[in-house]
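Support request, please re-run this one:
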Amino acid sequence: MKKKTTHIFIFLIALLPSCSKDSNQIEPRDPDVPGKHFVYIKNYSDRMWIGTNSDSLGGVMPAFTGTGTEYWIGGGVVPDSILRHGFYFDPNTILIAEATVEGMQTTISQIRKDPVYYQNNGWSNGLAEHAWYIKAEFLKYKVQD
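Re-run finished. Output below.
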C-alpha cells in the first residue's frame, strides 16, 4: 500500500508545475509594442504592455503605476499575430479614464478572440475611429530609451 501511495504522490507533484503555468503570465522584459511611454497592465488574469506617444499621458502614467487602482485604458485596436495576444493598441489613440461608456468596455481576452472585429467596430474616442477600453491595474511604467 505504501508503494502505491508514493507513486501517486510523485505523479501529482510532477503535474503541479504544468498545471500552474499560464503563458499569459510570462512577463516580457521590455515593451513589445510601439510607443514612447509604456505601461505594463493587468486585466483580470491577462497582462500586456500598452504604449502611447502622448507625453501628457506619459507624465501621469508613473503616478498611476503600482497603486493597485484600476483605470480604463485603450484606443484603436491593431491586429498583430506576432504578439502574444494577437493585437496592440495604436499608441497615437490611447486614452486613460476613471470611467467609460459601457459599450466601449472589453477585456484583453475578448479582443484576443477576434482582433479584426475590434479594429473595425466600436465608437470613436476622437483619436481613433473605433476605440475600446480595458479596465487595468498599472504594474510597471517604462520610457523608451
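Confidence is low (pLDDT under 50) at residues 5-23. The two ends are 62 Å apart (CA to CA).
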